[in-house]
């Protein structure tokens, strides 16, 4: 069975671990989100790709869910001693090696997909992982930073609402800024509303070699409970990928990242609001739409959502969706595959 | 008193520490060797500059003489796990930060001299340190690698002596190669003769901003007991620097790195042989020459050298030259400055 999985970071990685447990012999291709990539200290950092690679390769810090196990942060402390930041992004001593190797290979002319393959040579994640694109895509978020935020800079009154408030006079007017997704997510912990979420560069990006081929050859396509906007949504924003999935003619089944009207982990509600989608299991299903999605799993606490989702033309079931451990996650994966078979035989 | 010091790595750094102890109020400018710079893992590494900076800034590993105190090597182990080397060059987790900051600043367009100044902002070495040049100079060494050396590659018989020996037939013919100085020094520990030492790029290099000005403004110019070929020699190979020193009209005094016909530390004899200079205190003095050098300190064990050196037109004294601790080194520095005054009043 050939399975294609669109994956973000922690949620996607953990789901994949369950999927491998559920169907150890399946041929799994992961299309990884690169919209959260960031250049730090002159190095190319791909947080989602690394989270999947480390998680499936046994190198992840289980507690944090990102970065390397048994990690230390001495290099970062030294960078801070030089006054070089950002300090809010956690790059560990062991993790740095991945970014150094990646950056060196990219500088030598290898595309990110080839670099990812080379890195996976070490980690043997047991899946084929392809970045969604070899082109540069970076998700940016429009926010209004509160006055006094270090990134807001000296208040000039030129932010949102500047028309109404003379420069320097109004307190709390804030400064409108477009910031990197990581700054929004990691530094600000999504503490201010995301006014817009833009995968910069996506429109000009091409799917990486192998992406469309894997989709065309898939027996099943799965959307793990990853962030629908900044993970799955970014992958779908690369021209050709959404179309290829819709036209693949195989079951496309997703798992809701929203349980009981709140994200299971992360802060998906913040970025869902930016695209006008309610933070509910049904709203996310309808956001993907029946043109893309054939089946949708919601958590048992959201069983009341099932009818509405099925009315929207998406086959739906309510099952436990908490990835508390690998076995529970494997059960979720089996449910997703069972729903796919149900959809296929309709 | 304005003192200009031409410095290599460990020897130069330790001498400078003694010099600062001897004349705490002196205005010291260090012209640093960059011929041993190397690109590793996509990062620009300047071992000599860093050794001086860390030593004078209190960050050096005292026992090794290079790298950071309280160092760990986790990042390097991870690079090795990716199969990315070289493994023979010791870059520690804390040390990496210096190379990352440097590389990032260079990529942003700053010249090495500005980068060095920025790094020294943190370390406050108490001297002004200028790299000899902002241009790329890398010392290379011609060697005959023994068969079986990992860098020799599969034996093709195309090395030195290939004409006489049919391919693959003769044992021990070796493979002639030009390798980076660091590979010769660190990986091979100078275990094979240096057939030639070439500061690649030196001929086209220009002295960094401030170098010639510091020399012209100096009251005294000192050559610490650094390597006469790959440290001081490389600095002098940058067009304009040797001439500026010779024409400065101030005492130029050196300290012999050779004591009792052997280098005090390092393997200076190996590279002296490559330039046809005997490994003796007098031969090194004559190698610099009376056109450049006004005074020369030899160790007391080399007192018999004094007459010969003075006959060559270089004022010479025999004093203890072992840098066993900072106080002993400070005494050496005072002797060098005393000799400079003696020369000046001639």
TrEMBL record, chains A, B:
UniProt region (Disordered), positions on chain: 145-174
Span of the signal peptide: none
Binding site for 7,8-didemethyl-8-hydroxy-5-deazariboflavin: 50
GO MF term (any one): transferase activity
Keywords linked to the UniProt accession: Magnesium, Transferase
Superkingdom per UniProt: Bacteria
EC number: 2.7.8.28
Pfam families: CofD (PF01933)
Catalytic activity: enolpyruvoyl-2-diphospho-5'-guanosine + 7,8-didemethyl-8-hydroxy-5-deazariboflavin = dehydro coenzyme F420-0 + GMP + H(+)
Bias kind Low complexity: ranges: 163-174
Cofactor: Mg(2+)
Pathway(s) this gene product operates in, as recorded in its UniProt entry: Cofactor biosynthesis; coenzyme F420 biosynthesis
Complex formation: Homodimer.
Protein family according to the UniProt entry: Belongs to the CofD family.
HAMAP family: CofD (MF_01257)
Function field: Catalyzes the transfer of the phosphoenolpyruvate moiety from enoylpyruvoyl-2-diphospho-5'-guanosine (EPPG) to 7,8-didemethyl-8-hydroxy-5-deazariboflavin (FO) with the formation of dehydro coenzyme F420-0 and GMP.
Name of the molecule in the record: Phosphoenolpyruvate transferase
Record organism: Streptomyces pratens
Gene name of the encoded protein: fbiA
